[in-house]
Structure formats: C-alpha cells, structure tokens
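Thread: quick sanity check before group meeting

JM: Hey all, I'm pulling together slides for Thursday and realized we never actually wrote out the predicted structure for the chain we discussed last week. Dropping the sequence here so it's in one place. If anyone has concerns about the input, flag it before I start.
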Amino acid sequence: MTPDDISIDFEEGGIKTTREIDKVILSKGAWTTILFRYRNWDFKTEAYGEDKFTIRRYQKRNGEYIPRSKFNITNARQAALIVESLQRWLDED
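JM (edit): ok, ran it. Output follows.
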C-alpha cells in the first residue's frame, strides 16, 4: 500500500456516504499527511452536501497506514479563512 491508495470514501448500506473528490499528499514517509476534499451524503435531501475538507495523518507500520489524527474543515468559509491566515503569515516572512 502507498499513500496514493489511501481514500476516505465510505459506503454504508449500499450508499457511498462519504465521497472523496480530490486529495493532496502533503508529506510521505513513516508519517503521511493528506489533505482531502470530500462530500457527505444527506439522507434527508438524498444528495451530496457542500464540499468539506479534512487533513489526516497516518502512521505507517508493517506496510499499513494507520489513521492517527484528523482535523475537519467543515465549510468553504472556514477553509478560506485558513488559506487567508496562512498566506498572511507567509507574506510576513
């Protein structure tokens, strides 16, 4: 298994309740960090909701990637604020 094989797609009862849209591998090695873009299935509307984002860390042990931590970015507004803050900090240097 490689970091490229890691996915957050999740199916329950024949419905893909979490659909991965894209991912960026931020780091590889004994500890791998991946930024995912995804959507969750809304059973009320029977449609996928808005884009969400999550940063996940995996530890490689015995050839397997074990999830160790995650940070969920729940909406586009929060994602934009993170991007804006990081860019401001980078511009300061």
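AS: nice. The radius of gyration is 15 Å. The chain is about 20% helix and 55% strand.
JM: adding both to the slides.
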